[in-house]
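Show me any protein, keeping tokens residue-aligned.
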Amino acid sequence: MATESSGTLPWIERIAESFPHIPFDHFHQTTAPHLIKLRGSLVARDLVGAEPLAFVADTGISYTWSTCTSGLNALPVVSSGINEATTVVRLSEHAFSDIMNELLTPSGAVQTGRAVVSTGELSG
């Protein structure tokens, strides 16, 4: 199979281009809070005890995913900055969009160097 000089397969890039670009900042400021409001309760039990996880885009913009415990439920919360994140993942906007479009898994992004865990570790 032919590859481009970047080491990627040309047909994979064409497939990715057919999906909408999901901007890192817009997703965290608008889409994520909306989804959390609508469906956060569906994952609340799974988040109990989860450590804060931060994402830093290549633009320098960062967001931390953490939990807010309310009774027995832990609702997801997205806040600007790295805050007290146990794990920090650095990635490009392109890699973030591919992950959100389910074209790339988070572990695949790390294994291929499209994302770097700069603090902590990914598990699970």
In short: The longest helix spans residues 24-39.
